[in-house]
Design brief:
Arc Repressor Mutant, subunit A, mainly alpha, two-stranded antiparallel ribbon
């Protein structure tokens, strides 16, 4: 038999739903902005993320790149393959470890990354607007996001292990 919720429990549920809607709205807005920028460059948002990860840290292995963009190796492998075929990325064996194949941007890839994330890009302009917030608010927001991620990951792990 279902227990009746108290007013406090209903308020708490409503607040949780409001939080979820708010995060979904921010997520959708970010994706929309990334899609617009990616479309301008004839890329996908995932391809843009891969480019930017490699511009920040060149010579990543496929598994390191997948971890960096928080996607599966098989997904990233397909993205990398298409970007190599387009002349945007290249695969090279590292001289210090011939067993490791490193992925890095070509000149064309560097130019695309600059167009996607450089000072004049839609992404940078939008992010500069976010930086108008007081530093304390940004720090609080980042801390709250970290806590939320930990809570959700912990609950997900707990449920998976049951």
């Amino acid at each position: 038999m279902r227990k009746l919720q108290s007013a406090e429990e209903r308020d708490s549920s409503a607040r949780a739903a409001q939080l979820i809607r708010s995060f979904r709205q921010v997520h959708r807005s970010m994706l929309k902005m990334m899609r617009i920028q990616a479309d301008l460059l004839d890329l996908t948002p995932v391809q843009m993320m891969v480019l930017h990860a490699l511009s920040e840290e060149p010579n990543l292995s496929l598994s390191d790149l997948a971890e960096r963009v928080q996607l599966g190796c098989s997904t990233v492998s397909g993205v990398v393959k298409r970007l190599v075929e387009a002349g945007i990325l290249e695969r090279k064996r590292l001289e210090e470890d011939q067993r490791t194949i490193a992925i890095r941007l070509t000149e064309k890839g560097k130019q695309l990354d600059e167009q996607a994330f450089g000072d004049d890009s839609l992404m940078s302009k939008a992010l500069r607007n976010l930086l108008q917030f007081p530093v304390e608010n940004i720090d609080t927001l980042l801390a709250l996001h970290q806590q939320l991620t930990e809570i959700l990951d912990t609950e997900g792990e707990r449920k998976r292990d049951e």
